[in-house]
From TrEMBL:
<dbReference type="InterPro" id="IPR037294">
    <property type="entry name" value="ABC_BtuC-like"/>
</dbReference>
<feature type="transmembrane region" description="Helical">
    <location>
        <begin position="64"/>
        <end position="85"/>
    </location>
</feature>
<feature type="transmembrane region" description="Helical">
    <location>
        <begin position="328"/>
        <end position="347"/>
    </location>
</feature>
<comment type="similarity">
    <text>Belongs to the binding-protein-dependent transport system permease family. FecCD subfamily.</text>
</comment>
<feature type="transmembrane region" description="Helical">
    <location>
        <begin position="288"/>
        <end position="308"/>
    </location>
</feature>
<feature type="transmembrane region" description="Helical">
    <location>
        <begin position="130"/>
        <end position="151"/>
    </location>
</feature>
<feature type="transmembrane region" description="Helical">
    <location>
        <begin position="6"/>
        <end position="26"/>
    </location>
</feature>
<keyword id="KW-1003">Cell membrane</keyword>
<feature type="transmembrane region" description="Helical">
    <location>
        <begin position="246"/>
        <end position="276"/>
    </location>
</feature>
<keyword id="KW-1133">Transmembrane helix</keyword>
<dbReference type="InterPro" id="IPR000522">
    <property type="entry name" value="ABC_transptr_permease_BtuC"/>
</dbReference>
<protein>
    <submittedName>
        <fullName>Transport system permease protein</fullName>
    </submittedName>
</protein>
<feature type="transmembrane region" description="Helical">
    <location>
        <begin position="97"/>
        <end position="118"/>
    </location>
</feature>
<feature type="transmembrane region" description="Helical">
    <location>
        <begin position="203"/>
        <end position="221"/>
    </location>
</feature>
<dbReference type="GO" id="GO:0033214">
    <property type="term" value="P:siderophore-iron import into cell"/>
</dbReference>
<keyword id="KW-0813">Transport</keyword>
<feature type="transmembrane region" description="Helical">
    <location>
        <begin position="157"/>
        <end position="175"/>
    </location>
</feature>
């Protein structure tokens, strides 16, 4: 089992290094970038052309780094929540964490009075939405921690969180119902998952939050292994269930609230990566399952990023619109690809995948 785990992690690590190079080469519309340019950019820091350096550094590199960060963090957060709730459907989306981010962002977009309050802090719409997303993530985190402290059973926490997510969704629907089309378009651009909105300056805060999250994950590996056998069993071995639950929810909420404002809603990665990692690694030991899930999340995100640039929506045939096609949103590519992979696994007999 250990040998299989090391082999799987090694293969995923190699893919996680190789795919960014491929993404730099084909992750855009410019045909002038050659593989030699990418090699020089990686090894020497420059291609010898200011224009090509700009394309690689400011246009192609940030989404690839963003894909790595999103894959690592949201996949890890999804596995933590699935272990805590002993439910394969648990993820940052289904537990209402992203709903809090979207709620506050929608309030800023649709309600002028709230938007004007943030004018004191930031001076442009994009920064206001980012700040609103962080506030929403903090709000969702506080709500989840209160629920975790008040509710005894883990299943009770996820039910209350799910209902809270529906409540937040109802408020968003109410705001959208009477909003201007321009505001609705702005909201849509925020919620649809995309890596192209990430800039090079965004990578440092994203990486800092990722580092904090990974440190938290390392300290929680043993407690999560204990939770696999049930809360009563874990408690009999001296594990503080309430403290562990609060820490898991804290780190999952923290990283989701920190990352989603930069990327929009990329919900499926937190669900599908842990699900696919289990039959791949064939163990529930989080010392192997966690890195496998996180690296698999990186690979899936990078693959979907590359596919989103190479395959386009046939607008003329679907919508009857006679204009050039645009790249697919990575959230849509991930939902389609991940869904097909899960269906394939179920069809091939992996329908008995469990938490332990």
């Amino acid at each position: 089992m250990k040998k299989r785990g090391f082999v799987v992690i090694l293969i995923l690590s190699i893919l996680s290094i190789t795919l960014p190079i491929i993404g730099l080469y084909i992750g855009g519309n410019a045909k002038s970038i050659t593989f030699g340019d990418v090699t020089n950019f990686i090894l020497k820091g420059t291609t010898g052309s200011e224009f090509k350096d700009f394309l690689l550094r400011d246009n192609r590199l940030p989404p690839i780094l963003g894909a790595i960060v999103v894959g690592l963090t949201l996949s890890g957060a999804g596995l933590m929540l699935q272990t805590l709730f002993r439910n394969l459907l648990a993820s940052p989306y289904t537990t209402g964490i992203t709903s809090g981010v979207l709620l506050v962002a929608s309030l800023v977009i649709f309600v002028n009075s709230i938007s004007k309050i943030l004018d004191v802090v930031v001076d442009n719409e994009i920064s206001k939405i980012l700040l609103a997303g962080w506030i929403g993530g903090l709000f969702a985190m506080i709500m989840l921690l209160i629920i975790a402290y008040r509710v005894e059973e883990a299943n009770g926490v996820i039910i209350v969180a799910l209902l809270l997510g529906y409540f937040f969704g109802g408020i968003r629907d109410y705001l959208i119902a009477n909003a201007e089309e321009v505001r609705i378009q702005q909201y849509w651009e925020f919620i649809v998952g995309s890596l192209t909105r990430i800039h090079l300056n965004d990578i440092l805060p994203m990486a800092a939050c990722t580092f904090i999250f990974i440190i938290g994950v390392i300290f929680l590996l043993k407690p999560m292994n204990a939770l696999l056998f049930g809360e009563k069993y874990a408690k009999s071995f001296g594990l503080n269930i309430k403290k562990t639950r609060i820490l898991i929810l804290f780190f999952a909420s923290f990283i989701t609230g920190a990352i989603v404002p930069f990327t929009g809603l990329i919900a499926f990665i937190g669900l599908v990566a842990p699900y696919l990692a289990r039959p791949l690694i064939k163990t529930s030991d989080h010392r192997y399952l966690m890195p496998t899930s996180m690296l698999l999340g990186v690979v899936l995100m990078l693959l979907c990023h590359i596919l989103s640039f190479k395959y386009f929506v046939p607008l003329h045939y679907i919508y009857g619109i006679d204009r050039p096609a645009s790249p697919l949103p990575i959230g849509a590519v991930l939902d389609i690809l991940g869904g097909l992979l899960v269906i394939y696994l179920v069809y091939k007999g992996e329908k008995k995948i469990r938490i332990i």
